[in-house]
Design brief:
alpha+beta, eight-stranded antiparallel beta sheet, 16 strands, 17% strand, Beta-lactamase family protein, Diverse_Enzym_Activities
Length: 395
């Protein structure tokens, strides 16, 4: 029935590989209980001659964020977390935080709330070379990476406390900027639950859903399934793909051992089939694998939040997300006619730095997942092409 869709997807994937846009890619679509299409092309490791396939393990990077959000929702349901609760109530280091304004450090007009972490309105940012806040955060990441294999590695909680000592880019709630909020939320979940972040995720989400290939590291017996990361260099006839083996955001590229720092914004590795179990749990009102992970009303809350108008002004500057808002660590389409590609009202999801991609379409009961490992990708040209092919056929 969907042979045409599969052929169109495979043609686009082959073209991207031939043109050195990606080394390998797979793509999975489900509607309700039915698998609509699965396609795979290319290599997970060109040098070793390993093809990319269905059980290939990918570094999720920012596709970790929706999982962290779901973990926070579990604590919310149990009355262990309240979204207007100051972060400093749980992580005391945040009580002394300052905001950078006109080159001066000042006390913020209001504290940072848990809700600010979920909506990226906290004032916490990723490293950059232009701002006082970004430079300070960059130093924290540099130290965390330097200590990765030391006898004193930086923990999830220490990482959050070190971020608390960095100046905020703006007063919490006054703007929006993509940053380290989910990483701090991981530390919050540790303190509130009394468990290591990875243990909480394993017990509350991964184990109940049967996500057996999802964790913050990849053990030796699974290492051959971990996709190699690549990057495109050169242009025109000189364009080629080379291996990328650097660490990013204090995440070990080789994923060979568990880290003391478990990044709520970037640290997980998983497969398309595993992540599909998580995505379908959300699509099914919090139920997956016969387990009720979240209540239906909680999932509705998790997937329906919007930024306030003054916050949305900053989100609107994100090229490629016209018509989308942000909430609970995911994008959400609210004005589909403003988007410049095929989309649907109410769709939500996120992507990852190496090209992983997730989208749920609640009104159509549709889930789309894409796997690849290309440096600095996020949602890129191939993602949009495969989306348009799929949505053109199925919406």
């Amino acid at each position: 029935m969907y042979k045409k869709l599969g052929n169109l997807l495979k043609d686009a994937m082959k073209k991207a590989i031939d043109e050195q846009e990606v080394m390998g890619v797979n793509f999975l679509v489900r509607r309700g209980n039915d698998e609509i299409v699965y396609c795979e092309e290319g290599f997970s490791d060109r040098e070793a001659g390993r093809k990319l396939n269905r059980d290939t393990i990918f570094r999720m990077y920012s596709m970790t964020k929706p999982v962290t959000s779901a973990a926070a929702m579990i604590l919310l349901e149990r009355g262990m977390l309240e979204l207007y609760q100051p972060v400093a109530d749980i992580l005391p280091a945040f009580a002394k935080q300052k905001v950078c304004r006109d080159g001066q450090l000042m006390t913020p007009e209001r504290p940072m709330f848990i809700n600010d972490l979920l909506s990226m309105t906290s004032g916490l940012v990723y490293p950059d070379e232009q701002t006082i806040a970004g430079l300070a955060v960059g130093q924290v990441y540099a130290e965390a990476e330097k200590r990765l294999d030391s006898e004193n590695p930086m923990s999830t909680l220490e990482f959050a406390d070190r971020l608390a000592a960095c100046p905020l880019a703006y007063t919490p709630g006054s703007s929006w900027q993509y940053g380290t909020s989910a990483d701090v939320l991981g530390a919050v979940i540790e303190v509130v639950s009394g468990k290591k972040f990875s243990q909480f995720l394993e017990e509350e989400i991964f184990q109940p859903l049967g996500m057996n290939d999802t964790a913050f590291w990849v053990p030796e017996e699974k290492q051959e399934r971990l996709a190699t990361a690549y990057e495109t260099v050169g242009q025109g006839q000189d364009k080629k793909m080379i291996r990328y083996e650097g660490n990013n955001l204090a995440i070990r590229n080789d994923m060979k051992k568990a880290s003391a720092y478990e990044a709520g914004g970037a640290g997980l590795a998983s497969t398309l089939d595993d992540y599909m179990k998580f995505a379908r749990m959300l699509q099914n009102g919090g139920c997956g694998n016969g387990e009720q992970i979240l209540h239906t009303k909680t999932v509705q809350f998790m997937t329906s939040q919007s930024l306030l108008p003054h916050q949305q002004m900053m989100m609107d500057q994100w090229i490629g997300l016209d018509g989308f808002t942000y909430g609970n660590l995911m994008r959400r389409c609210v004005i589909p006619e403003r988007h410049r590609n095929l989309c649907a009202s109410g769709e939500y999801g996120w992507d990852g730095w190496l090209g992983m991609y997730f989208a749920n379409f609640p009104n159509e009961d549709l889930t789309v997942l894409m796997g690849t490992q290309k440096k600095d990708s996020g949602t890129f040209s191939l993602t949009r092409k495969l989306r348009n092919i799929t949505l053109g056929e199925l919406l």
